[in-house]
Amino acid sequence: MCRNIKPLFNFDPPASEEEIRASALQFVRKISGFTRPSKANEEIFNQAVDSVTAIARDLIGALQTDAPLRSRAEFIERAKARAAQRYARQS
Questions:
Q1: What is the pLDDT of residue 10?
Q2: For burial by CB atoms within 10 Å, which of 15, 34, 36, 88 has the most?
Q3: d(CA 49, CA 17)
Q4: Does residue 90 surpass a pLDDT of 80?
Q5: Residues 20/7, Cβ–Cβ less than 8 Å
Q6: Torsion angle (degrees, nearest 10) of CA 82, 83, 85, 88
């Protein structure tokens, strides 16, 4: 899984439209191999991002859980701690 795509379900506050679109863009970039498509591929690339955004929005809206909402701040802190450990070992 692409490291830049973050979980978006069951958070307080909920994922914004901007976050959903950003994850869709990362997904399309990953599977297409393009960071920025050529003019010839730009339209289909943007259509793919729009489609993945809509599907992700529908998925997040339809998922159900009995688990309590996760704190976005706590999630970010844990991720930073894991990154600090990972990069400290590489030095």
A1: 93
A2: 15
A3: 13
A4: no
A5: no
A6: 180
Q: 85: closest CA among 7, 19, 77?
A: 77
From residue 20, alpha-carbon distances to 17, 49, 52, 89 in Å are 5, 10, 9, 32
Amino acid identity of 85? Q
Strands (E), the chain: 11-12, 70-71
User: 20-61: per-residue pLDDT in tens?
Assistant: 999 999 999 999 999 999 999 999 999 999 999 999 999 999
Alpha-carbon distance of 44 to 15, in angstroms, equals 26
The pLDDT score that the predictor gives to residue 1 is: 46
- Are the C-beta atoms of 53 and 45 separated by less than 8 Å? no
Which residue ranges make up each domain of the chain? 13-90
Asked whether the beta carbons of 26 and 86 are under 8 A apart, the reply is no
